[in-house]
Design a protein that fits this description.
The protein has helices at residues 10-18, 28-38, 42-68, 90-98, 100-103, 118-131, 141-151, 157-166, 182-195, 209-215, 219-231, and strands at residues 86-87, 107-111, 136-140, 169-173, 200-205, 233-237, 239-240. The longest helix has 27 residues, at 42-68. With 265 residues, it is an alpha/beta fold. It folds into 2 domains: 11-68; 77-243, 3-Layer(aba) Sandwich (Rossmann fold). The strands form 2 sheets. It has a 5-stranded parallel sheet. A two-stranded antiparallel sheet has the order 1-7. Helix 9 links the parallel strand 4 (169-173) and strand 5 (200-205). 49% of the residues lie in helices and 11% in strands.
Length: 265
């Protein structure tokens, strides 16, 4: 015969809410039942309930910080389809996942053709860094440069640049897909030079670094910036079938509508 579920009094509920522990009520009945079945001491039961609350707060905080960092919530390592026919150097990948490169202020270049999962892996690194409480910012290169250019009009350029310089991990997606004018080139130069050996930067691109030089307006600034970026960077090259194509719906498959403005893989 199953024992009746423990009763939680209105008074206890009110007290928990008053001390900002109201969310413990979500799991408290199960924890009370577990404490009874395992004959936990008062201290063990309290540790169990508080551990649940710490985990919940950490998870909630990480989600908020990931959203503020501009990270797609769906692009996390636990959601990566590792059965895709995409090949890359696993040793370098494991090193990046360890996040030692962030701690050591090194960089990473994630390179490869369209659709192989560059954005996904960069974003997943961002989520991992957020969970480790590093400060992170993710932005597509063209949008970032457009925003920086516009900031010159209202004299907020220095403030916007400082935001990008001070984060522990800056993720720049789709770098140099198109030519950069002199203003864009100057901004890229400042970002890379000021972050060099001070903070980690991850760049994804469909183009090889040698191609970037020809797309930047000032060859001297370009050479100086790219040399610094590469000199302390891991290079992860992805090859294989389109990862994005695997997400294409098939007849009879039930899918949920994609949210607007999904980032590219």
């Amino acid at each position: 015969m199953t024992a009746p579920a423990p009763t939680i009094s209105p008074e206890l509920k009110a007290l928990l809410r008053q001390v900002k522990l109201g969310r413990t009520l979500d799991t408290l009945p199960e924890r009370l039942a577990l404490a009874k079945s395992r004959q936990l001491s008062h201290v063990e039961f309290l540790e169990l309930v508080l551990s649940d609350e710490v985990t919940r707060r950490d998870t909630s905080s990480a989600l908020l910080r990931a959203k503020a960092a501009g990270l797609d919530a769906e692009m996390r390592f636990e959601r990566y389809d590792d059965t895709a026919a995409v090949s890359f150097d696993r040793e370098i990948f494991d090193e990046l996942v360890s996040l030692r490169f962030v701690e050591q202020a090194h960089n990473a270049l994630i390179l490869g053709p369209v659709g192989v999962g560059k954005t996904f892996l960069a974003t997943a690194l961002g989520h991992a860094a957020v969970r480790r409480r590093f400060t992170v910012h993710f932005e597509r290169a063209d949008q970032m440069l457009k925003r920086l250019k516009a900031s010159r009009l209202d004299n907020s350029h220095d403030a916007e640049m400082r935001k990008l310089l001070r984060v522990d991990l800056l993720l720049i997606d789709d770098f140099c897909l198109q030519a950069l004018d002199s203003i864009d080139t100057a901004d890229v130069y400042e970002l890379i030079v000021e972050r060099h050996q001070r903070a980690a930067t991850v760049v994804t691109s469909n183009r090889e670094p040698i191609e970037w030089l020809g797309l930047m307006a000032d060859s001297l600034l370009a050479q100086s910036a790219i040399d610094r970026l590469q000199s302390s960077a891991y290079e992860l090259v992805l090859e294989g079938e389109s990862y994005r194509r695997r997400q294409k719906p098939s007849p009879g498959q039930t899918t949920t509508p994609s949210p607007p403005k999904r980032r590219r893989v």
